[in-house]
Task: inverse folding
Protein backbone atom coordinates (compact mmCIF):
# COMPACT_ATOMS: atom_id res chain seq x y z
CA UNK A 1 0.00 0.00 0.00
CA UNK A 2 1.31 3.42 -1.01
CA UNK A 3 -0.95 6.43 -0.54
CA UNK A 4 -0.17 9.84 -2.01
CA UNK A 5 -1.87 12.75 -0.22
CA UNK A 6 -2.06 16.21 -1.82
CA UNK A 7 -3.25 19.48 -0.26
CA UNK A 8 -3.05 22.76 -2.18
CA UNK A 9 -6.25 24.30 -0.90
CA UNK A 10 -4.63 27.32 0.77
CA UNK A 11 -1.13 28.84 0.99
CA UNK A 12 0.15 25.68 2.63
CA UNK A 13 1.37 23.15 0.12
CA UNK A 14 1.39 19.65 1.53
CA UNK A 15 2.33 16.30 0.04
CA UNK A 16 2.69 13.03 1.94
CA UNK A 17 3.36 9.37 1.27
CA UNK A 18 1.92 6.74 3.59
CA UNK A 19 2.25 2.99 3.86
CA UNK A 20 -0.25 0.90 5.83
CA UNK A 21 1.14 1.83 9.27
CA UNK A 22 3.82 4.36 8.51
CA UNK A 23 4.21 7.87 7.18
CA UNK A 24 7.08 7.52 4.70
CA UNK A 25 7.48 11.16 3.84
CA UNK A 26 5.92 14.53 4.23
CA UNK A 27 6.56 17.85 2.50
CA UNK A 28 5.07 21.09 3.81
CA UNK A 29 5.67 24.71 2.93
CA UNK A 30 3.68 27.80 3.82
CA UNK A 31 4.70 30.50 1.37
CA UNK A 32 2.75 32.63 -1.07
CA UNK A 33 4.03 31.00 -4.23
CA UNK A 34 1.82 29.58 -6.97
CA UNK A 35 0.97 25.92 -6.35
CA UNK A 36 0.97 25.31 -10.09
CA UNK A 37 4.73 25.81 -10.18
CA UNK A 38 5.50 23.81 -7.04
CA UNK A 39 2.93 21.03 -6.53
CA UNK A 40 4.15 18.57 -9.18
CA UNK A 41 7.88 19.15 -8.43
CA UNK A 42 7.09 18.57 -4.71
CA UNK A 43 5.32 15.29 -5.54
CA UNK A 44 8.21 14.24 -7.76
CA UNK A 45 10.86 15.07 -5.16
CA UNK A 46 9.06 13.37 -2.30
CA UNK A 47 8.39 10.20 -4.28
CA UNK A 48 11.97 10.06 -5.51
CA UNK A 49 13.34 10.54 -1.99
CA UNK A 50 11.06 7.81 -0.68
CA UNK A 51 11.87 5.48 -3.56
CA UNK A 52 8.26 5.19 -4.71
CA UNK A 53 7.48 4.97 -8.45
CA UNK A 54 4.17 6.35 -9.78
CA UNK A 55 2.99 2.87 -10.75
CA UNK A 56 3.44 1.71 -7.15
CA UNK A 57 0.82 4.14 -5.83
CA UNK A 58 -2.38 2.49 -4.64
CA UNK A 59 -4.54 5.50 -3.78
CA UNK A 60 -4.67 9.29 -4.10
CA UNK A 61 -6.16 11.34 -1.26
CA UNK A 62 -6.79 15.02 -1.94
CA UNK A 63 -7.98 17.98 0.12
CA UNK A 64 -11.10 18.96 -1.79
CA UNK A 65 -11.79 22.36 -0.20
CA UNK A 66 -13.02 24.70 0.95
CA UNK A 67 -10.21 27.12 0.28
CA UNK A 68 -8.81 29.17 -2.57
CA UNK A 69 -10.78 28.21 -5.71
CA UNK A 70 -7.66 28.10 -7.87
CA UNK A 71 -5.60 26.37 -5.19
CA UNK A 72 -8.14 23.60 -4.61
CA UNK A 73 -8.53 23.10 -8.36
CA UNK A 74 -4.80 22.57 -8.87
CA UNK A 75 -4.69 19.79 -6.26
CA UNK A 76 -7.93 18.21 -7.44
CA UNK A 77 -6.85 18.32 -11.12
CA UNK A 78 -3.52 16.66 -10.31
CA UNK A 79 -5.23 14.08 -8.06
CA UNK A 80 -7.96 13.24 -10.59
CA UNK A 81 -5.54 12.94 -13.47
CA UNK A 82 -3.08 10.79 -11.50
CA UNK A 83 -5.86 8.52 -10.20
CA UNK A 84 -7.44 8.16 -13.64
CA UNK A 85 -4.23 7.58 -15.58
CA UNK A 86 -2.81 5.14 -12.98
CA UNK A 87 -6.20 3.47 -12.58
CA UNK A 88 -6.26 3.78 -8.78
CA UNK A 89 -8.94 5.13 -6.42
CA UNK A 90 -9.33 8.79 -5.44
CA UNK A 91 -10.64 9.96 -2.07
CA UNK A 92 -11.54 13.54 -1.25
CA UNK A 93 -11.34 14.89 2.30
CA UNK A 94 -12.50 18.26 3.62
CA UNK A 95 -9.59 20.68 3.85
CA UNK A 96 -10.97 21.83 7.22
CA UNK A 97 -11.26 18.29 8.53
CA UNK A 98 -7.52 17.79 7.92
CA UNK A 99 -6.71 20.70 10.24
CA UNK A 100 -9.14 19.51 12.90
CA UNK A 101 -7.89 15.93 12.76
CA UNK A 102 -4.35 16.85 13.71
CA UNK A 103 -4.91 19.56 16.28
CA UNK A 104 -7.94 18.11 17.98
CA UNK A 105 -6.72 14.58 18.60
CA UNK A 106 -5.81 15.13 22.25
CA UNK A 107 -8.23 17.97 22.98
CA UNK A 108 -11.35 17.18 24.97
CA UNK A 109 -13.76 19.59 23.38
CA UNK A 110 -14.86 20.98 20.06
CA UNK A 111 -12.42 21.90 17.28
CA UNK A 112 -13.14 24.76 14.88
CA UNK A 113 -10.65 24.91 11.99
CA UNK A 114 -10.99 28.03 9.84
CA UNK A 115 -9.81 29.70 6.66
CA UNK A 116 -10.37 33.39 5.97
CA UNK A 117 -13.03 34.02 3.31
CA UNK A 118 -12.68 37.85 3.15
CA UNK A 119 -15.06 40.60 4.26
CA UNK A 120 -15.40 39.28 7.81
CA UNK A 121 -16.27 35.78 6.62
CA UNK A 122 -14.68 32.41 7.19
CA UNK A 123 -14.89 28.86 5.92
CA UNK A 124 -15.29 26.70 8.98
CA UNK A 125 -16.89 23.60 10.45
CA UNK A 126 -17.06 21.96 13.86
CA UNK A 127 -15.37 18.67 14.70
CA UNK A 128 -14.81 16.50 17.75
CA UNK A 129 -12.96 13.28 18.56
CA UNK A 130 -15.27 10.64 19.97
CA UNK A 131 -13.78 7.27 20.93
CA UNK A 132 -10.69 8.05 18.90
CA UNK A 133 -12.66 8.89 15.75
CA UNK A 134 -13.04 12.38 14.34
CA UNK A 135 -16.73 13.23 14.03
CA UNK A 136 -18.34 16.16 12.24
CA UNK A 137 -20.49 18.19 14.64
CA UNK A 138 -21.41 20.99 12.21
CA UNK A 139 -20.84 20.69 8.44
CA UNK A 140 -18.33 22.92 6.64
CA UNK A 141 -19.81 26.27 5.74
CA UNK A 142 -19.13 29.86 4.78
CA UNK A 143 -20.41 32.54 7.15
CA UNK A 144 -19.58 35.72 9.04
CA UNK A 145 -17.22 35.17 11.97
CA UNK A 146 -19.61 37.11 14.24
CA UNK A 147 -22.44 34.71 13.37
CA UNK A 148 -20.22 31.70 13.89
CA UNK A 149 -19.04 32.68 17.38
CA UNK A 150 -22.60 33.39 18.42
CA UNK A 151 -23.55 29.88 17.36
CA UNK A 152 -20.57 28.41 19.23
CA UNK A 153 -21.34 30.36 22.38
CA UNK A 154 -24.74 28.72 22.65
CA UNK A 155 -23.06 25.28 22.70
CA UNK A 156 -21.41 26.22 25.98
CA UNK A 157 -18.33 24.03 25.50
CA UNK A 158 -14.63 24.75 25.08
CA UNK A 159 -13.68 25.34 21.42
CA UNK A 160 -10.17 25.00 20.01
CA UNK A 161 -9.50 27.26 17.02
CA UNK A 162 -6.85 26.43 14.43
CA UNK A 163 -5.71 27.83 11.09
CA UNK A 164 -3.14 30.21 9.64
CA UNK A 165 -5.78 32.94 9.22
CA UNK A 166 -6.63 33.05 12.96
CA UNK A 167 -4.97 36.46 13.54
CA UNK A 168 -7.56 38.08 11.23
CA UNK A 169 -10.49 36.76 13.30
CA UNK A 170 -9.03 36.30 16.78
CA UNK A 171 -10.39 39.55 18.18
CA UNK A 172 -13.98 38.78 17.21
CA UNK A 173 -13.68 35.26 18.62
CA UNK A 174 -12.22 36.36 21.98
CA UNK A 175 -14.72 39.18 22.48
CA UNK A 176 -17.66 36.79 22.20
CA UNK A 177 -16.35 33.48 23.56
CA UNK A 178 -13.87 34.71 26.21
CA UNK A 179 -12.53 31.69 28.23
CA UNK A 180 -14.52 29.29 26.10
CA UNK A 181 -12.02 29.85 23.25
CA UNK A 182 -8.65 28.09 22.96
CA UNK A 183 -6.10 28.80 20.25
CA UNK A 184 -3.64 26.40 18.68
CA UNK A 185 -0.01 27.48 18.36
CA UNK A 186 1.72 28.24 15.04
CA UNK A 187 3.10 24.70 14.70
CA UNK A 188 -0.48 23.42 14.34
CA UNK A 189 -1.73 25.84 11.67
CA UNK A 190 -0.36 24.14 8.58
CA UNK A 191 -2.63 21.25 7.63
CA UNK A 192 -0.60 18.04 7.80
CA UNK A 193 -0.73 16.08 4.55
CA UNK A 194 0.01 12.86 6.47
CA UNK A 195 -3.17 13.48 8.44
CA UNK A 196 -5.01 13.91 5.14
CA UNK A 197 -3.64 10.60 3.92
CA UNK A 198 -4.67 8.86 7.13
CA UNK A 199 -8.22 10.26 6.94
CA UNK A 200 -8.56 8.90 3.42
CA UNK A 201 -6.74 5.62 3.99
CA UNK A 202 -9.76 3.48 4.80
CA UNK A 203 -12.40 5.43 2.91
CA UNK A 204 -13.84 4.04 -0.28
CA UNK A 205 -12.72 5.44 -3.63
CA UNK A 206 -15.05 7.92 -5.35
CA UNK A 207 -16.01 8.22 -9.01
CA UNK A 208 -13.02 9.90 -10.65
CA UNK A 209 -14.81 11.59 -13.58
CA UNK A 210 -17.42 13.35 -11.45
CA UNK A 211 -14.99 14.25 -8.66
CA UNK A 212 -15.01 18.03 -8.08
CA UNK A 213 -13.84 20.44 -5.37
CA UNK A 214 -16.21 21.46 -2.60
CA UNK A 215 -16.20 25.21 -3.25
CA UNK A 216 -19.11 25.78 -0.79
CA UNK A 217 -19.82 29.04 -2.61
CA UNK A 218 -21.52 29.54 -5.96
CA UNK A 219 -19.79 31.64 -8.60
CA UNK A 220 -20.55 35.34 -8.05
CA UNK A 221 -21.86 35.77 -11.60
CA UNK A 222 -24.36 32.94 -10.98
CA UNK A 223 -25.57 34.51 -7.74
CA UNK A 224 -26.08 37.86 -9.48
CA UNK A 225 -27.82 36.21 -12.40
CA UNK A 226 -30.20 34.40 -10.05
CA UNK A 227 -30.91 37.62 -8.18
CA UNK A 228 -31.57 39.45 -11.43
CA UNK A 229 -33.89 36.65 -12.55
CA UNK A 230 -35.39 36.36 -9.05
CA UNK A 231 -34.63 32.70 -8.57
CA UNK A 232 -34.26 31.81 -4.92
CA UNK A 233 -31.16 29.92 -4.01
CA UNK A 234 -32.35 26.71 -2.45
CA UNK A 235 -29.92 25.09 -0.12
CA UNK B 1 11.41 2.19 -41.15
CA UNK B 2 10.83 5.28 -39.03
CA UNK B 3 8.65 4.75 -36.01
CA UNK B 4 5.35 6.61 -35.92
CA UNK B 5 5.24 9.65 -33.66
CA UNK B 6 2.18 10.01 -31.40
CA UNK B 7 1.68 13.35 -29.64
CA UNK B 8 -1.18 14.10 -27.27
CA UNK B 9 -2.49 17.67 -27.20
CA UNK B 10 -4.33 19.34 -24.31
CA UNK B 11 -6.16 22.66 -24.64
CA UNK B 12 -8.09 24.49 -21.89
CA UNK B 13 -7.30 28.16 -22.52
CA UNK B 14 -10.89 29.38 -22.69
CA UNK B 15 -14.23 27.58 -22.71
CA UNK B 16 -13.41 24.28 -24.46
CA UNK B 17 -11.90 21.30 -22.69
CA UNK B 18 -10.05 19.46 -25.44
CA UNK B 19 -7.73 16.48 -25.82
CA UNK B 20 -6.45 15.05 -29.09
CA UNK B 21 -3.81 12.64 -30.38
CA UNK B 22 -1.93 13.26 -33.62
CA UNK B 23 0.20 10.82 -35.61
CA UNK B 24 3.36 12.15 -37.27
CA UNK B 25 2.23 15.75 -36.91
CA UNK B 26 -0.44 15.59 -39.59
CA UNK B 27 -2.90 12.79 -38.97
CA UNK B 28 -5.67 13.02 -36.38
CA UNK B 29 -6.22 9.76 -34.50
CA UNK B 30 -8.37 11.24 -31.73
CA UNK B 31 -9.97 14.65 -31.34
CA UNK B 32 -12.34 15.36 -28.44
CA UNK B 33 -13.78 18.77 -27.57
CA UNK B 34 -16.19 19.42 -24.67
CA UNK B 35 -17.70 22.84 -25.24
CA UNK B 36 -19.11 24.94 -22.40
CA UNK B 37 -20.82 27.46 -24.63
CA UNK B 38 -24.28 26.69 -23.21
CA UNK B 39 -23.12 27.44 -19.65
CA UNK B 40 -21.84 30.90 -20.56
CA UNK B 41 -24.66 31.94 -22.89
CA UNK B 42 -26.90 33.42 -20.20
CA UNK B 43 -24.05 35.66 -19.04
CA UNK B 44 -23.42 37.01 -22.55
CA UNK B 45 -19.76 35.99 -22.42
CA UNK B 46 -17.30 33.59 -20.85
CA UNK B 47 -17.24 33.79 -17.03
CA UNK B 48 -13.68 32.76 -16.07
CA UNK B 49 -14.56 31.06 -12.76
CA UNK B 50 -17.33 29.03 -14.41
CA UNK B 51 -14.96 28.03 -17.21
CA UNK B 52 -12.39 26.80 -14.68
CA UNK B 53 -15.00 24.78 -12.79
CA UNK B 54 -16.19 23.11 -15.98
CA UNK B 55 -12.66 22.19 -17.01
CA UNK B 56 -12.17 20.29 -13.73
CA UNK B 57 -15.45 18.45 -14.30
CA UNK B 58 -14.58 17.48 -17.87
CA UNK B 59 -10.86 16.85 -17.86
CA UNK B 60 -10.60 13.10 -17.21
CA UNK B 61 -13.73 12.35 -19.25
CA UNK B 62 -12.19 14.03 -22.27
CA UNK B 63 -8.86 12.24 -21.71
CA UNK B 64 -10.58 8.88 -21.57
CA UNK B 65 -12.58 9.47 -24.72
CA UNK B 66 -9.45 10.53 -26.61
CA UNK B 67 -7.47 7.48 -25.48
CA UNK B 68 -10.35 5.22 -26.49
CA UNK B 69 -10.71 6.87 -29.91
CA UNK B 70 -6.99 6.48 -30.54
CA UNK B 71 -6.89 2.98 -29.08
CA UNK B 72 -3.44 3.62 -27.65
CA UNK B 73 -1.77 3.05 -24.29
CA UNK B 74 0.21 5.73 -22.45
CA UNK B 75 3.55 4.10 -23.24
CA UNK B 76 2.83 4.59 -26.96
CA UNK B 77 2.69 8.38 -26.54
CA UNK B 78 5.92 10.19 -27.45
CA UNK B 79 4.99 13.50 -25.82
CA UNK B 80 2.24 15.48 -24.15
CA UNK B 81 1.76 18.96 -25.61
CA UNK B 82 -0.25 21.48 -23.63
CA UNK B 83 -1.37 25.07 -24.16
CA UNK B 84 0.77 27.22 -21.84
CA UNK B 85 -0.91 30.50 -22.89
CA UNK B 86 -2.28 32.96 -23.73
CA UNK B 87 -5.78 32.61 -22.32
CA UNK B 88 -7.69 32.68 -19.04
CA UNK B 89 -5.20 31.82 -16.31
CA UNK B 90 -7.57 29.69 -14.19
CA UNK B 91 -8.64 27.75 -17.26
CA UNK B 92 -5.09 27.24 -18.55
CA UNK B 93 -4.02 25.92 -15.12
CA UNK B 94 -6.30 22.88 -15.44
CA UNK B 95 -4.76 21.74 -18.71
CA UNK B 96 -1.22 22.49 -17.58
CA UNK B 97 -1.56 20.56 -14.30
CA UNK B 98 -3.38 17.64 -15.89
CA UNK B 99 -0.67 17.45 -18.56
CA UNK B 100 2.07 17.46 -15.93
CA UNK B 101 0.31 14.74 -13.92
CA UNK B 102 0.08 12.41 -16.92
CA UNK B 103 3.64 13.19 -18.03
CA UNK B 104 4.89 12.36 -14.52
CA UNK B 105 2.72 9.27 -14.01
CA UNK B 106 3.88 7.67 -17.26
CA UNK B 107 7.28 9.29 -17.72
CA UNK B 108 6.33 11.02 -20.99
CA UNK B 109 8.12 14.16 -22.26
CA UNK B 110 6.17 17.40 -21.83
CA UNK B 111 6.02 20.19 -24.42
CA UNK B 112 4.55 23.69 -23.92
CA UNK B 113 2.61 25.21 -26.82
CA UNK B 114 1.48 28.75 -27.63
CA UNK B 115 -2.25 28.83 -28.36
CA UNK B 116 -1.81 30.87 -31.56
CA UNK B 117 0.94 28.56 -32.79
CA UNK B 118 -1.71 25.88 -32.36
CA UNK B 119 -4.27 27.78 -34.45
CA UNK B 120 -1.70 28.22 -37.23
CA UNK B 121 -0.67 24.56 -37.11
CA UNK B 122 -4.31 23.46 -37.45
CA UNK B 123 -3.58 24.03 -41.13
CA UNK B 124 -0.94 21.31 -41.17
CA UNK B 125 -3.70 18.79 -40.46
CA UNK B 126 -5.16 19.78 -43.84
CA UNK B 127 -2.19 20.69 -46.02
CA UNK B 128 1.61 20.44 -45.61
CA UNK B 129 3.19 23.83 -44.89
CA UNK B 130 5.22 25.48 -47.65
CA UNK B 131 7.64 28.11 -46.37
CA UNK B 132 7.93 31.01 -46.34
CA UNK B 133 4.30 31.43 -45.43
CA UNK B 134 1.89 33.94 -43.96
CA UNK B 135 -0.92 33.26 -41.52
CA UNK B 136 -3.89 35.49 -40.87
CA UNK B 137 -5.02 34.72 -37.31
CA UNK B 138 -8.48 36.00 -36.41
CA UNK B 139 -10.27 35.01 -33.22
CA UNK B 140 -12.09 36.38 -30.19
CA UNK B 141 -8.81 37.38 -28.59
CA UNK B 142 -6.44 37.83 -31.54
CA UNK B 143 -6.10 39.49 -34.90
CA UNK B 144 -2.60 39.17 -36.30
CA UNK B 145 -0.55 38.55 -39.40
CA UNK B 146 2.24 36.07 -38.70
CA UNK B 147 5.16 35.42 -41.04
CA UNK B 148 6.91 32.05 -40.84
CA UNK B 149 10.20 31.40 -42.63
CA UNK B 150 10.38 27.86 -41.25
CA UNK B 151 8.74 25.44 -38.79
CA UNK B 152 8.36 26.77 -35.26
CA UNK B 153 9.53 30.28 -36.17
CA UNK B 154 6.92 33.02 -35.79
CA UNK B 155 7.26 36.70 -36.68
CA UNK B 156 4.24 38.87 -35.88
CA UNK B 157 4.23 41.51 -38.64
CA UNK B 158 0.92 43.04 -37.67
CA UNK B 159 -1.55 42.84 -34.80
CA UNK B 160 -4.57 44.64 -33.43
CA UNK B 161 -3.94 47.78 -31.43
CA UNK B 162 -7.25 47.58 -29.60
CA UNK B 163 -10.08 45.06 -30.05
CA UNK B 164 -9.64 41.72 -31.74
CA UNK B 165 -11.93 41.19 -34.74
CA UNK B 166 -13.91 38.58 -32.79
CA UNK B 167 -14.44 41.02 -29.93
CA UNK B 168 -15.81 43.63 -32.34
CA UNK B 169 -18.19 40.98 -33.70
CA UNK B 170 -19.44 40.12 -30.20
CA UNK B 171 -19.95 43.79 -29.28
CA UNK B 172 -21.79 44.62 -32.49
CA UNK B 173 -23.94 41.53 -32.00
CA UNK B 174 -24.87 42.77 -28.53
CA UNK B 175 -25.81 46.16 -30.00
CA UNK B 176 -28.12 44.34 -32.39
CA UNK B 177 -29.49 42.23 -29.52
CA UNK B 178 -28.21 39.00 -31.06
CA UNK B 179 -27.52 36.05 -28.74
CA UNK B 180 -24.02 35.12 -27.57
CA UNK B 181 -21.73 34.22 -29.24
CA UNK B 182 -22.57 36.88 -31.79
CA UNK B 183 -20.06 36.21 -34.58
CA UNK B 184 -21.99 33.47 -36.40
CA UNK B 185 -25.24 35.49 -36.13
CA UNK B 186 -23.67 38.57 -37.74
CA UNK B 187 -22.19 36.39 -40.45
CA UNK B 188 -25.60 34.82 -41.16
CA UNK B 189 -27.42 38.19 -41.12
CA UNK B 190 -24.76 39.71 -43.36
CA UNK B 191 -25.51 37.10 -46.04
CA UNK B 192 -29.12 38.35 -46.12
CA UNK B 193 -28.34 42.07 -46.25
CA UNK B 194 -26.54 44.62 -48.40
CA UNK B 195 -23.64 46.83 -47.25
CA UNK B 196 -25.68 50.03 -47.63
CA UNK B 197 -24.33 51.87 -44.58
CA UNK B 198 -21.04 53.70 -44.84
CA UNK B 199 -18.73 52.56 -42.05
CA UNK B 200 -15.04 53.44 -41.52
CA UNK B 201 -12.06 51.24 -42.34
CA UNK B 202 -8.98 51.69 -40.15
CA UNK B 203 -6.01 51.40 -42.51
CA UNK B 204 -3.60 53.06 -40.02
CA UNK B 205 -0.17 54.10 -41.39
CA UNK B 206 0.41 53.29 -45.04
CA UNK B 207 3.01 50.60 -44.43
CA UNK B 208 1.42 49.17 -41.28
CA UNK B 209 0.07 45.66 -41.02
CA UNK B 210 -1.57 46.46 -37.69
CA UNK B 211 -5.33 46.46 -37.19
CA UNK B 212 -7.82 48.54 -35.21
CA UNK B 213 -11.49 47.70 -34.77
CA UNK B 214 -12.60 49.89 -31.86
CA UNK B 215 -13.42 52.85 -34.15
CA UNK B 216 -15.57 50.64 -36.35
CA UNK B 217 -17.34 49.22 -33.32
CA UNK B 218 -18.11 52.74 -32.05
CA UNK B 219 -19.33 53.79 -35.49
CA UNK B 220 -21.82 50.90 -35.48
CA UNK B 221 -23.08 51.83 -32.01
CA UNK B 222 -23.42 55.51 -33.06
CA UNK B 223 -25.26 54.58 -36.23
CA UNK B 224 -27.80 52.53 -34.29
CA UNK B 225 -28.14 55.37 -31.79
CA UNK B 226 -28.72 57.98 -34.51
CA UNK B 227 -31.38 55.88 -36.20
CA UNK B 228 -33.18 55.35 -32.89
CA UNK B 229 -33.07 59.10 -32.13
CA UNK B 230 -34.68 59.88 -35.46
CA UNK B 231 -37.31 57.31 -34.65
CA UNK B 232 -36.24 55.18 -37.62
CA UNK B 233 -35.51 51.49 -37.48
CA UNK B 234 -32.34 50.18 -38.96
CA UNK B 235 -32.34 47.04 -41.09
CA UNK B 236 -30.13 44.78 -38.96
CA UNK B 237 -29.14 42.65 -41.95
CA UNK B 238 -27.82 45.74 -43.76
CA UNK B 239 -25.92 46.92 -40.71
CA UNK B 240 -24.44 43.44 -40.26
CA UNK B 241 -23.46 43.32 -43.93
CA UNK B 242 -21.88 46.78 -43.76
CA UNK B 243 -19.94 45.95 -40.60
CA UNK B 244 -18.77 42.63 -41.96
CA UNK B 245 -17.74 44.24 -45.24
CA UNK B 246 -15.62 46.78 -43.38
CA UNK B 247 -13.85 44.12 -41.29
CA UNK B 248 -13.24 41.86 -44.27
CA UNK B 249 -11.98 44.69 -46.51
CA UNK B 250 -9.22 45.52 -44.05
CA UNK B 251 -8.31 41.90 -43.30
CA UNK B 252 -8.16 40.85 -46.95
CA UNK B 253 -6.37 43.97 -48.22
CA UNK B 254 -3.63 43.79 -45.60
CA UNK B 255 -3.21 40.05 -46.08
CA UNK B 256 -2.85 40.50 -49.85
CA UNK B 257 -0.28 43.27 -49.40
CA UNK B 258 1.78 41.19 -46.96
CA UNK B 259 1.55 38.17 -49.27
CA UNK B 260 3.20 40.17 -52.06
CA UNK B 261 5.76 41.99 -49.92
CA UNK B 262 6.96 38.87 -48.11
CA UNK B 263 6.82 36.75 -51.28
CA UNK B 264 5.21 33.83 -49.49
CA UNK B 265 4.24 30.49 -51.04
CA UNK B 266 1.26 29.89 -48.85
CA UNK B 267 -1.33 31.79 -46.84
CA UNK B 268 -3.03 30.07 -43.90
CA UNK B 269 -6.25 31.25 -42.31
CA UNK B 270 -6.43 30.50 -38.57
CA UNK B 271 -8.57 31.15 -35.49
CA UNK B 272 -12.24 31.03 -34.59
CA UNK B 273 -13.29 33.85 -36.94
CA UNK B 274 -11.87 31.75 -39.79
CA UNK B 275 -15.25 30.02 -39.60
CA UNK B 276 -16.80 33.24 -40.98
CA UNK B 277 -18.35 32.52 -44.39
CA UNK B 278 -17.96 36.08 -45.61
CA UNK B 279 -14.24 36.11 -44.81
CA UNK B 280 -13.66 32.70 -46.40
CA UNK B 281 -15.43 33.75 -49.59
CA UNK B 282 -13.61 37.10 -49.82
CA UNK B 283 -10.19 35.48 -49.33
CA UNK B 284 -10.95 32.78 -51.87
CA UNK B 285 -11.96 35.38 -54.41
CA UNK B 286 -8.97 37.64 -53.77
CA UNK B 287 -6.51 34.76 -54.07
CA UNK B 288 -7.76 33.65 -57.46
CA UNK B 289 -5.62 36.54 -58.81
CA UNK B 290 -2.48 35.19 -57.14
CA UNK B 291 -1.85 31.96 -59.00
CA UNK B 292 1.48 31.11 -57.35
CA UNK B 293 0.21 31.41 -53.80
CA UNK B 294 -1.72 28.61 -52.14
CA UNK B 295 -4.55 29.64 -49.81
CA UNK B 296 -5.40 27.14 -47.07
CA UNK B 297 -8.60 27.41 -45.08
CA UNK B 298 -9.13 24.67 -42.49
CA UNK B 299 -12.54 23.07 -41.94
CA UNK B 300 -14.71 24.77 -39.32
CA UNK B 301 -14.01 22.15 -36.63
CA UNK B 302 -10.28 22.93 -36.78
CA UNK B 303 -10.78 26.73 -36.74
CA UNK B 304 -12.39 26.89 -33.32
CA UNK B 305 -10.38 25.88 -30.25
CA UNK B 306 -9.34 22.22 -30.26
CA UNK B 307 -6.43 20.11 -29.06
CA UNK B 308 -5.50 18.57 -32.41
CA UNK B 309 -3.96 21.92 -33.35
CA UNK B 310 -2.00 21.97 -30.07
CA UNK B 311 -0.70 18.46 -30.76
CA UNK B 312 0.20 19.50 -34.33
CA UNK B 313 2.22 22.50 -33.12
CA UNK B 314 3.56 20.38 -30.25
CA UNK B 315 4.92 17.82 -32.71
CA UNK B 316 7.16 20.48 -34.27
CA UNK B 317 8.27 21.79 -30.85
CA UNK B 318 9.00 18.23 -29.77
CA UNK B 319 11.05 17.54 -32.89
CA UNK B 320 12.97 20.78 -32.33
CA UNK B 321 13.88 19.50 -28.85
CA UNK B 322 11.73 21.84 -26.74
CA UNK B 323 10.89 20.30 -23.34
CA UNK B 324 8.95 21.67 -20.39
CA UNK B 325 9.51 20.41 -16.84
CA UNK B 326 7.09 19.80 -13.97
CA UNK B 327 7.42 23.44 -12.87
CA UNK B 328 5.59 24.55 -16.05
CA UNK B 329 3.04 27.23 -15.23
CA UNK B 330 0.12 28.77 -17.09
CA UNK B 331 1.16 32.00 -18.80
CA UNK B 332 -1.90 34.12 -19.73
CA UNK B 333 0.21 36.75 -21.53
CA UNK B 334 2.58 34.41 -23.35
CA UNK B 335 4.42 35.97 -26.32
CA UNK B 336 4.33 34.10 -29.66
CA UNK B 337 7.68 35.33 -31.01
CA UNK B 338 9.89 34.32 -28.09
CA UNK B 339 8.07 31.05 -27.60
CA UNK B 340 10.14 28.77 -29.78
ZN1 LIG C 1 -8.32 30.17 -29.88
Result:
Amino acid sequence: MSILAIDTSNYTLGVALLEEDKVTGEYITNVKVNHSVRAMPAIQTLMKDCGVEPNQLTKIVVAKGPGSYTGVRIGVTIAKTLAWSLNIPIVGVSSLEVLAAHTGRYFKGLVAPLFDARRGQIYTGLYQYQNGMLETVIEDQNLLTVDWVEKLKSLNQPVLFVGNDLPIHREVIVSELKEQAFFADITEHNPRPAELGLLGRDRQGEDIHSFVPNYIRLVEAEVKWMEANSINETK
Amino acid sequence: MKKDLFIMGIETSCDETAVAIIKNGTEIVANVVASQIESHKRFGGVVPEIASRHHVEQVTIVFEEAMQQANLTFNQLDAIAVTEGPGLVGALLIGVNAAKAIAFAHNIPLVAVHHIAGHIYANRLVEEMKFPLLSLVVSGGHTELVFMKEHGHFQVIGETRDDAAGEAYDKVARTLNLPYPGGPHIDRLAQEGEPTIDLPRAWLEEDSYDFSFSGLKSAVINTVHNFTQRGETIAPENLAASFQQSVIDVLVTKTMRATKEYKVNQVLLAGGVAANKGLRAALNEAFTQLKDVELVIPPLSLCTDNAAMIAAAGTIMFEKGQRADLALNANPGLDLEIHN
User: Anything to note?
Assistant: Chain A has seven helices and ten strands. The longest strand of chain A covers residues 133-144. The beta strands of chain A are 3-7, 12-19, 22-30, 59-63, 90-93, 110-116, 121-130, 133-144, 159-162, 181-183. The first helix of chain A runs from residue 35 to 50.
